[in-house]
């Protein structure tokens, strides 16, 4: 028979499951779930088979073992939105696991209900957008945040086996985060290492065999698991085509995301030395580099090396540390410090404000009431978090990557870590009327802030949804047009495919799901020139994009069409072909309109001229 303790645990797990399910149901009733960016849509297209016609685990951004598993589900039942379900399951799964841990910590049903209400207020108030407009990098960060909280709030034990078992879920969440978005996981690892150091220092004795067995075993297991899945990813991409593309992808990422393109006229001599014409440079500027096969790994790596040399010479970018092994960044340390200062003083996000509130609460409830070693330990924890977050933010400011999809995982991890410290360090007995009054005032302020954030987040998300509806109308009209003309193939100007009036072009996760083959592709982007992109072209018997668009000019019966924003200046496209001795003109073959009759995109055909 089940003893009382097991029965209570089962009730708490069921209660946490009902809580997470109802929260997900409430959000699904009020909102449609979106993929945040076309990056997320591209991953979905690859694993679902919409990109090449066959589900593939080579989605480039996620590690292959995870992507292969998702693609396997698409092969079994293609009509189910497995990728969207997976991201939502990860996020609401973390909500469920945190709810279970909260209920296990709370001493009474009343405090348990209050804890779940607080968690719901945080999800619904602070992180509403992240749960209904889903971005895979943020999902990776939420998994890491869940691992942090579960680890910090785990019951203490002196038995290594019990310690490992209790922290198995955090370990699995770390590995899952690593597979979803490796860079985000690595970025947040310092928080996890700090949490481990805090827990280790919280043991009665630091240097004991038992403690070494407990913590070192957990760390080594996590590293081995991450190394194993990363090795499987490396094996999957070891083929010559994929290995070459990964080098191209890394050079492209470093160039666009971290270094930027040096101006052509000021560096004409260098560009001419690597055989890059002004017309090809324009393709790099407007991200349509897939049109030019001469823009290869060697040339991108040459531009990257040139940027690094300029930085060492004190021109353009900044080289920090030393001239030989310098860290190259867009901003100097001084510039990054000013940007970080502006972020601290000028941030208007509710997530950032909530982190500041937690720092204040920890000072009031965990630092002020204690003395001696306890106060020193509490202050050390705060200084540790501040040091970790400052280094990470300073790095982002130096490389100029202060983007919401990068900073939100940082803020979530910092918030969860502070919440874990607050929950654990304020759990002991505190005496005195002053402390009880401070705690009551703090709780009331938090409740008031939660209700205020609910109203603001609702308003912000609704406003974004209105913008996305307008963008959807255009993007869906384009996809419908391409489906109706399935015998044709379409190449889309990259910057015409990103957003409309500030709202990114993306797709809903669970509405109008269509995983059939898409007979269009971008003229650039992170999947451009990959083996998958070439498979897509080969399906229509095209060798490359340049010859595909110039099909009519070269005498073939059918060539690809080019799609761009209405009345967009495309002189660069004509000039590119002219540079290669091919005289063409652009003729508008059609115009894509929304259901309301509003012009959305122009469809062009390249026609040869004498």
Written overview of the protein:
The structure is a single chain. By secondary structure, the chain is of the alpha/beta class. 64% of the residues lie in helices and 7% in strands. The protein has helices at 4-30, 38-48, 64-76, 82-105, 109-126, 128-132, 136-152, 160-166, 168-180, 182-201, 209-236, 240-259, 268-273, 278-285, 297-312, 333-346, 350-367, 372-399, 404-425, 433-484, 531-538, 545-549, 571-579; strands at 34-35, 133-134, 318-320, 327-329, 490-492, 499-500, 503-504, 520-522, 561-565, 584-593, 599-608. The strands form 4 sheets. It has a 5-stranded mixed sheet. The model is unreliable at 552-557 (pLDDT under 50).
Task: Quickly list its features.
610 residues; alpha/beta; two-stranded parallel ribbon; 11 strands
Short characterization:
This protein is α/β, with parallel strands linked by helices and 610 residues long.
The proportion of strand residues reads 5-15%
The biggest beta sheet is recorded as: 5 strands, mixed
Helix content: 55-70%
Distance between the termini: 90 Å
Number of helices: 23
Q: Could you list the spans in which at least 5 consecutive residues all have pLDDT below 50?
A: 552-557
Strand order, largest beta sheet: 8-5-9-11-10
- Count of extended strands: 11
Class per helix and strand makeup? alpha/beta
Overall mean confidence score, pLDDT: 88
- Spatial extent as radius of gyration: 27 Å
What best-fitting shape do the alpha-carbon axes yield? globular
Secondary structure layout:
Layout lengths: L3 H27 L3 E2 L2 H11 L15 H13 L5 H24 L3 H18 L1 H5 E2 L1 H17 L7 H7 L1 H13 L1 H20 L7 H28 L3 H20 L8 H6 L4 H8 L11 H16 L5 E3 L6 E3 L3 H14 L3 H18 L4 H28 L4 H22 L7 H52 L5 E3 L6 E2 L2 E2 L15 E3 L8 H8 L6 H5 L11 E5 L5 H9 L4 E10 L5 E10 L2
Parallel strand pairs: 1-2, 5-8, 5-9
Antiparallel strand pairs: 3-4, 6-7, 9-11, 10-11
